[in-house]
Design brief:
68% of the residues lie in helices and 5% in strands. By secondary structure, the chain is mostly helical. The chain has 2 domains: 2-135, no CATH class; 141-433, no CATH class. Helix 2 runs parallel beside helix 3 (102-116), helix 5 packs across helix 8 (217-223) and helix 9 crosses helix 16 (398-433). The longest helix has 36 residues, at 398-433. InterPro entries: ThrE-like_N, ThrE_2, ThrE_Dicarb/AminoAcid_Exp. Residues 292-431 form the Threonine/Serine exporter ThrE domain.
Amino acid sequence: MTETGTPLPETGGLHQDSVAELLMRQRTLERAALVALEAGRILMETGAKSAVVREGVRKVALGLGVKTADIRVGFASISTTVGDGVCSSTHMIGVGHHGVNMRINHRVREICAETGRGGLTPDAVEQKLAAATKTTPKHHKLLNVFAAGLACAAFGRLLGADAPAFVTTLVASMIGQYIRLVLLERHYNAFVVTATVAFAAAVLSGIGAMAMGSTMIDTSMSAAVLMLVPGVPSMNAQTDIMEGFPTLGSARFVTVAMILVFITLGVGAAHIVLGGGLQDAIKSTPNIVHHAFFGAVAAAGFGVLFNFGYRNLGWAALAGALALAVRTFCMLNGWPLEAASFAAAVAVALVVELSYNTPFPVRRVGNAIAVAGCIPMVPGSAAAHWIIGLLEITVQPLEKSDMMLAATTSAGLQVIFTVGAIGAGLTMVSSTFRRPEFPTRDHED
């Protein structure tokens, strides 16, 4: 952390008590700013959008006695200048890896809201924040691994994978998620981890699918890496830009693009190892019930990865089922993927927002439930095929390159427009209802 303070006036004409009072004011501001920034750092590192981080820092700072708080939220740091009308103090704190942990995130929101109502000391708030990161429960590693595998296998079914491909995707993605957790615990570079896990999961899934006689080898390989697709960061990036924070949103988009590149690197290497040319058979068109069921499974699986509480996993599953049911219904009636995804996102966001003033516990993490429900609609497989297609264009004969370029461009535009449609649907509804991001009273977890 770094800090600067306003210079004290010359002490020659001041009483000693006045100097001591100014020093006390300065220390009070410093303490409040540092505690507020710590709350903002935890919010950022657990998946909060820019507006939530800013409001959390502001609530803590004002609740600890400052009169003004100017806040800047960047991708790698957060800074604030606080003042009490006489003195001011500027501080900055670094931000680490941007992850997703909804139980810690919403516990810190509760602490921010409680602090904003006054009555807490900086030491008390600091202790609460430390307890939130250390004692908030998280799912067992084995459950996390199984949930990732189940979510990817459900994605595979949504993409039309057959039964053998479902099994191989489940096993391969579980192994991939375990490797991912081990490497991240040892603090390896996140992008290198992404490429490594993508390669391992894709190779294992492809080998298994071929051994079991699957006709959906390519789908199995693509589905096995979808737990790596940064769904929440991509939604936050778009939301930040729509809410007036383009700098942070752009930085998040760059990170999302880099993750997709390294996923593609891993999957592309797996294709090379397995000989390439892995084509799927013609996929059948599943019905609404099929899509709703596996959308629910995928959303619940990602709920575990996001560390939802157990009671909220059911709400995430219902949101996923609703999203895929609405999207499939629209597509069966001739809607394009982008429009159907927008309608599904609006439907999920509306249901979540309307439930806010009901006794249902979905109000506890409403926006996060909506995002989890829409994650199964993120076209991660199309994104991988898009970048792989761009790489393959360079080695194609000239007479075939135009056709491949057209197909690759189409896939890329579909990814961009679909993700944009989902984010727009969620953000437009939430901004219309203007539901508070922080609880008005404390909740039990």
